[in-house]
Model the fold of this input.
Amino acid sequence: MTTATTKKGWADRLADAMEVMAPIFDQPHLAAVRDGFVAMMPLLIIGALTLLVLQFPCSLQEGSACYLGDIMNQDLAAKLWIPFNATYGLLSIFVTISISYALAKRRGLDPVMPVIFTFLAFMIMAAPVLTGFDAEAEQFIDNRGLFTAIVVAVVSIEVFRFFVKRNLVITMPAGVPPAIANAFIALVPGVVIVFGWWAIRYLLNFDLAGGLFVVLSKVVPAASTYTAVAIAESFHAFLWTMGIHGDLTIGIALQPVWTANLAANAMAVAEGLPPTAIYTSEFRSYVVPGGSGATLPLAFYFMRSKAPRLRRVGWLGIWPGIFNINEPITFGAPVVFNPILAIPFIIITFLNATVAYLAHVLHLVTPTFITAPWTLPTPLLMLMMTGYDWRAAVLAVITEFVIPGIIWWPAFKAWEKQVLEKEKVEVPAGAAAPAVA
Done:
């Protein structure tokens, strides 16, 4: 008796690879860094409201822009900068808290005391002025301390977990209120965390924050080149075609770079200088307008399809697609494990990244420096993120409708043909033909 063997297709092999890769994308430390930066969005939006107000155009005279901040009462304008300084100026502190909280939760710790001790550790390492050590020392509590925030948060939470997991803590008798018991449990790891970082910084005189800032100044520009952008965004699109959340996956490595660039641009504008960094998370709205793969034109094509199933998918996908949510198209078409749609999905992402980056290199559009809710329609979103640069809205229309509209059309026709042929095959044999009036 022989046993038939079935050769796996490419989709099955990719599915197997996805299962192997999945634990990497959910590795606790990497995922905590990603989640910690993503959680900063509301904070960055609130701080950016200052820029939205002060950068509002009031007139254009002889090609020279006039902004609301220029004609506003200067005392009021100075007060409006306070929310910006309290958010972007303290960005690394908030990132420290956010990452340590995310990691503590993933490690099964009550996050309150671990987060507090991590915050103290970061202040010791990055804020010698605020801790009273040296009034002339350089501080790294704004965007320059982002790498320090990551290192201090991850190490501190792991040290805290080490002591708790091995029961190297002060335990109280049964019947002691939980709040008091937890306070004593946190005492020993807290002492080790705070005085450990203190010894590193002031006894060993090891300036971790200054050293990591030098690393940051090298890594961020290298990760912001066109080559890096094109590879990262094409890879993100490829991951989506395998059913893996591409944005979150590349965000594990690149979110610190995106945030550092955005904060640098915002700080430059606050100082009256032009923004220069191109690759921010906001720049990515040019790359993925309407969602990854820029599928909004595809949704329009589906709405007029001859195939009933594609029409249903189009109507389901068009409305969320306007607000940059396109899972109904990605999984309903589907794009996942479908080479006919997966290939243009990746090509469009690459072309959008290339055109948008080139537009910035040629100074045809202002780099993004304001964070706004990503669910806004893309042309409006880019108008706001660039401080009301109308050219950004035009570029958004090109990357959302023109480039994808051209690329998606032949792919749509090819997929529609296959769907129609499949629907004919699925008609039961011997079924009566529909009556013709």
